[in-house]
Write a structure and sequence with these properties.
The protein is α+β, with helices and mostly antiparallel strands. Helices cover about 35% and strands about 10% of the residues. The protein folds into 2 domains: about 55 residues, no CATH class; about 130 residues, 3-Layer(aba) Sandwich (NADH Oxidase), CATH 3.40.109. The chain has a 4-stranded antiparallel sheet with strand order 1-2-4-3, with helices on both faces.
């Protein structure tokens, strides 16, 4: 049974836990507060820093519950165009791709396929499919979002919405790992098909380039360049 309120004082002669045990107990208590929904401050359920961020690390330390800092990932994400010369681990790339695979989709249509590119020469060629896509050439990895090349307006519009959802899912998953992301349109579909070996009935909708930022690490942006909240949000009516 979970008890709330201040912790009970230890007995006078009770043994004191070692520092490492104390840290583990603190992490477990923080995790319990999140799981049970007990508020410890604004956005506590998304941003308690006393809990280890990585589930894999937690597992190695004996099964401590890990909590994703979702809000930090959302507020840290920004478009990155200059990348450090640093590879992204295969496990991390697969996690980003898995986030895209799990993204919501209209009627579970899942119109996408993903082509992951990490070869430097291939990235340079892929960057040529759009006049503003030069940053793709220097990325650690780029994901091509591939869909059916349909002329049906409804099909294309529905796919666009789904592609937006899978794009954001992958970008947030990347930001959670400290990885920057950007995007590029695709104008030269023939070039894209050639570089990626796509069949004729497929097109590349967008490119998502990934890499560790060359300028500064990702961190929550306190004052984003966005319209004011009260100007954007309408309640009940316009």
């Amino acid at each position: 049974m979970t008890r709330f309120g201040p912790p009970a004082r230890p007995a006078k002669n009770a043994p004191v836990a070692a520092p490492r045990q104390q840290k583990t107990i603190a992490m477990e208590n923080a995790s319990e507060r999140l799981i049970t929904g007990v508020s410890v401050g604004p956005l506590a359920a998304l941003n308690v820093r006393s809990v280890e961020r990585r589930a894999s690390s937690a597992g190695r330390r004996g099964g401590i519950v890990a909590v994703m800092e979702t809000w930090d990932a959302i507020t840290s994400r920004r478009n990155v165009r200059r990348f450090a010369d640093r590879a992204i681990g295969e496990d991390t790339l697969e996690q980003v791709l898995e986030a895209g695979r799990r993204a919501p989709s209209s009627r579970n249509w899942q119109p996408w396929d993903f082509v992951l590119v990490t070869d430097r020469d291939q990235l340079r060629e892929l960057s040529k499919v759009w006049q503003g896509g030069g940053h793709v050439a220097d990325s650690a990895a780029t994901i091509a979002l591939v869909v059916e090349d349909s002329d049906d307006r409804r099909t294309r519009e529905t796919a666009q919405y789904d592609l937006g959802q899978t794009t954001m899912a992958m970008m947030i998953a990347a930001a959670d790992q400290g990885i920057g992301s950007g995007h590029s349109a695709v104008a030269d579909q023939a070039k894209a098909r050639e570089v990626l070996g796509l069949p004729e009935d497929r097109r590349v909708a967008y490119l998502i380039d990934l890499g560790y930022p060359a300028d500064r690490p990702l961190k929550p942006i306190r004052n984003p360049n966005r319209r004011p909240f009260d100007q954007v949000v309408h309640r009940g009516r316009w």
